[in-house]
Amino acid sequence: MRVDWNERIGGIKMIEIRDFLRVHGRHVSKSLVSQRLSVGEETAMIIVGKLLSEDFVAVEDEDRGERRYKITDKGCRLASTRAVKRIDRHEAVPILHRFHARIEAVNARRDLIFFIREVRLFGSFIDPLATDYGDLDVAIDFQDKSRFNGDLKGHCEARADLHGRFLYGWHAVKYCKEEVRKLVAARDRYISVSCMVTLERIKAPSEPFYIAPDKVDDLTTSEHASAT
């Protein structure tokens, strides 16, 4: 997403508005804007109106007499956009090559409970008219390995416990999925990771980047035991 970080809405820089949306990931209101951005009610209404007109938020409902706005998919993309120097295609391609190598390295590991089944590129990188990029948008489909299907939560709880994280149920499952995401993202400031569900919801054009070979999920329990 191309963002002019010097643009101001009601005197507030876009980067501050981005940070506000990051913290309040689902709903916002005029009073919340006023409180968190330290502006008056009139300025807060200007900011909300601009976010509404640009489709960063949409009217949802009222709570205790105040209108609430849900953050849209476009608003979520703004929240995840990094304020980094834009790069051209010559610089972007090696970043994607390294990202691809990390995916293959992660999928080769026997100890991880999830693997990456598919990755798709979307956003400005696949736009033939774009000449530079603020980030490289990728959508990832995570899949648990079939040998864990019988007791996925139990295996995830054990792995979280191994790392000193005492989590249970779906919290442990989320932890193990996030472990894989962090490994492939590797804190690369240009790689912006979304889940495949988000890509399907926003119906953005996309192109295949990686599809896991069948052998990734072929490891038997005995192979896993010998590898660890």
UniProtKB/TrEMBL annotation:
- Give the record's keywords alphabetically: DNA-binding
Task: Tell me which domain of life the UniProt entry assigns to the organism this sequence originates from.
Answer: Bacteria
Q: What GO molecular functions are on record for this protein?
A: DNA binding
Identify this protein by name: Winged helix DNA-binding domain-containing protein
Organism equals Hyphomicrobium facile
